[in-house]
Each structure stands twice: as structure tokens, then as C-alpha cells.
Design goal:
alpha/beta, 10 strands, 276 residues, 8 helices, four-stranded mixed sheet, 18% strand, Purple Acid Phosphatase, chain A, domain 2
């Protein structure tokens, strides 16, 4: 029994769909899909239909792409879109951030798997940049995330306000988890929890859309053994304060094809537990 994770599988690309469909059966294993499945509800449905039968349990957290309004004029917006995705997952037996945290009973456990949905608040900028100037600072280098046009925060006034609400709600849940469980947690979020992990060498100012400083000590505060995230399209492992951080992105075809070299999806399934 193993716990795997992947993210940023972007099934709108035919190459990525082919890779998913080649995934071998893992009848005893669990899989975390840490966001950016695609932009439409049917993309999430497709992912579940393909991967659900191959794993004993499937877990999902949203990325920014799932929250995009598609089609732009008639698609669901903001919280309404997120609630619909949660409903789709629950109807198909997939665990979401709106469900109770799951206890991992396998080797390397017990571990409490905390699925998080936190968004970002534009605080991932250098100290000399004011948060309200974050987007204009990024645009100085020609960087602008499409979220600014098609990720709507309704009913919240801004994406930062939505992030604030999610932070408060999630902190309360994590505090209760510490009181109710003695085991370490695995924190699972699409966006990295730390600003110093939001490093994108080719587009460094994209860090604006990568998280919130309010989570930078969560790996210690909430007794984590592991932190799982995606979003950066730069898969890697690192360790800080005795905690293992896993960036588990697959990415766009041109980003993963050279790594996989005809080995299928397996290099894109990152083993979280038992620890490698």
C-alpha cells in the first residue's frame, strides 16, 4: 500500500490524456491529484473516470485552472464553480478539501492527510514590493497570469479576500486535527506553502500568483511530516525543519516528455508514503 501524488496533469492536452490512460493499475494504492486537472467540469470528470478505477482511493484539491470560468460568458464563477467540482468528486467517491481529513493506515503511518484549498493573496513578492502593487510589479517584466481575467472570486470581492476566508476556515480545522490526533499530518495544497519555494527561474515574477506568506510556518505549526504541492511545473523534493516537501507537477507536454522518455506516467507519480 503506497500513497502517490501528482498534479498539473492538464488533460486538455491530448498527450497528457494519453499518458493518463496508460497508467497501470494500482489496486492497493492511494493517489493525490493536487490541482490543475483542467479548466472545465468535464476535465475533472474525465480524470476521475480514468484514474478512479486504477487506485484504491483518489483524493483531489483544486488548482487555479479548475476555478477558471469556461466558457467565459456562461460558465460557473468563483465559489459556485468550486462547489460544483466538489459535488462531482463526491458523486464519484473522490475525497475533497470539504471532507474530513483522512487517516493513512499504510506503511509510514499513521498520517492524517489534510486536503487544503487556500488560493493566494499576492504576498509572495520581495519585501520592498507592496502587496497592492504585486501585479504591476510582475507586469514590469511582461508577466501576467490569466487568473486576472478568468478566475473570478464571487461572492468575495477579490481573490485575496477569498484566500483570507479559506485560511481562517482551514486554520480552525487544522487546530482541531492537532487536538484530536497524535500522528503527524501530510499537508496537501495546489500552491506551495512557502515563498522561498515559489522559485521559477524562467519567469521569477510569476511568484505573485503562487501562494500566501500566512502559510510559511504551517509545516511546523501543524506537525507535518510531508507537504505536497504543485503549480510550479518543476517537480522536486526538498527538506526543511525535518519536513519533506514534494512538488509533484506533471506539466505541459513539452515540460514532461523529455523526463519520461517512453516510461509512461510512472515518473509523474511521486511516492509520498512510505517515505522514499
Amino acid at each position: 500500500m503506497k500513497l502517490f501524488a501528482t498534479s498539473d496533469i492538464h488533460v486538455s492536452y491530448a498527450e497528457n490524456r494519453s499518458l493518463l490512460e496508460e497508467t497501470p493499475d494500482h489496486p492497493d494504492d492511494w493517489l493525490i491529484v493536487a490541482g490543475d486537472v483542467g479548466e472545465k467540469e468535464e476535465h475533472v470528470e474525465y480524470m476521475i473516470d480514468v484514474l478512479g478505477p486504477k487506485f484504491a482511493k483518489l483524493l483531489w484539491v483544486p488548482g487555479n485552472h479548475e476555478l477558471w470560468t469556461r466558457p467565459l460568458k456562461t460558465g460557473r464563477r468563483g465559489r459556485h464553480k468550486y462547489d460544483r467540482l466538489v459535488e462531482i468528486c463526491r458523486d464519484r467517491g473522490v475525497h475533497t478539501p470539504e471532507d474530513p481529513f483522512l487517516l493513512w493506515p499504510g506503511e509510514g503511518g499513521p498520517r492524517l492527510l489534510a486536503l487544503l484549498f487556500l488560493l493566494y493573496d499576492y504576498s509572495f513578492v520581495p519585501d520592498h514590493v507592496e502587496r497592492e502593487n504585486a501585479v504591476s510589479w510582475a507586469m514590469e517584466e511582461g508577466v501576467l497570469c490569466l487568473d486576472e481575467r478568468i478566475l473570478h472570486p464571487d461572492p468575495y470581492e477579490t481573490r485575496g479576500a477569498w484566500c483570507d476566508a479559506r485560511i481562517l476556515e482551514t486554520q480552525a480545522r487544522l487546530e482541531r486535527a492537532l487536538d484530536e490526533h497524535d500522528c503527524p499530518l501530510v499537508l496537501i495544497n495546489h500552491f506551495p506553502l512557502r515563498r522561498d519555494h515559489a522559485v521559477l527561474p524562467r519567469i521569477p515574477r510569476f511568484m505573485v500568483w503562487c501562494g500566501t506568506r500566512r502559510t510559511e510556518d504551517w509545516h511546523v505549526r501543524y506537525r507535518a511530516s510531508d507537504v505536497v504541492s504543485g503549480h510550479l511545473h518543476i517537480p522536486m523534493r526538498r527538506e526543511l525543519d525535518g519536513v519533506r516537501f514534494h512538488e509533484v507537477s506533471l506539466g505541459y507536454p513539452e515540460q514532461w516528455q523529455w523526463r519520461h522518455e517512453h516510461r509512461g506516467i510512472e515518473p509523474g507519480l511521486i511516492q509520498i508514503l512510505p517515505a522514499v
